[in-house]
Structures are given as structure tokens and as C-alpha cells.
Amino acid sequence: MAEFLTDMKTLRERARQEIDKGPVTEAYGADRERVIQVCNEALATEIVCTLRYKRHYFTATGIHAEAVAAEFLEHAQEEQEHADLLAERIVQLGGEPDFSPDTLTTRAHAEYDASLDLVEMIKEDLVAERVAIMSYTEIVQWLGDGDPTTKRIFERILAQEEEHADDLRGLLERLPRDLAR
What we know:
The chain is mostly helical. Helices cover 70% and strands 0% of the residues. It has helices at residues 8-16, 32-59, 65-92, 104-107, 118-143, 148-174, 177-180. The termini are far apart.
């Protein structure tokens, strides 16, 4: 049997201390308040992305709209899942998820888009995905080993954002050349 770095009796005693902190123990190595703030910014980003994709889903028109709109809806649902993951993590860290519509767009990394042109919708969504990819890559690097759980959440979201960007690039490539200009 492997030896623990700390004996079990000591671990149990430490676990009983500050029990109200839930999963945050003295072993937590990040700036918890800053991590909560960063998570709330990412939460705002995911909510804005959900809303943008939903708008694009409902307003997409034209001969190619059905397939593109289906992709928008799938992405909207996945962005909502990302928002839920982040909100849950914020609560685990002892924070409060900020869903305030008054400051949503100022806290978000991505912008809301109300384009009505199908190609512009795809391009704006691709830009937003690329912004999220860059932001979340920096966050993963910043978290390092200080908060492995939050880091894994961002890595999971990042992987899906990269998939979204690839999907959108593929949509642009499949559209007739005269539309995609």
C-alpha cells in the first residue's frame, strides 16, 4: 500500500477544520476570489454566446439555413452546458454566479451579434469562438496547478470551443463561393 504524504489522522483532523468551506481546503493553491471573478467572466461569455447562437438559430434564412441553423442550435445548447458548469464551480468555490443582465455584455469576452446575413452569422460566431479559445487557453495556463478542478473544467470547455470553431469553419467552406465572400 502506498504511503500518504500526510498521515490519515492528520488529514482527518484538517478535514474537520473549516468544514463550512466545502471542497476548498488549505491545499487549494489559487487565489480563490480571482478564480471566482474569472469564472464569472467566462460565465458571462457563455451566456452571451448562448444568446447569440439562439438568435442566429431563430433568424437564419435562405436556402442553406436549415443545416446551419441546426448547428447554431447544437452550439447554443453546448454553450448553456458550459455556463452551467461554470456556475456550479463558482458555487463550489464559495462564490455567487453573476447572471445579471445589466452587466452581462461588459463582463463577457465575446460580443453579442444581431446579424441577419447567414454568412455574417457564421463569421461572427467563428470570431467569438476564437476569442473564447484564446481566453480559455490563457486561463488554463494561468490556473496551472493551483486549481486542478477549475483547470479541467476550462480544458473541457476549451476542447468544445475548438470543435465549434472547426464546425463553423467547415460551414463556411461548404457554402457556395458566391455566398461565403
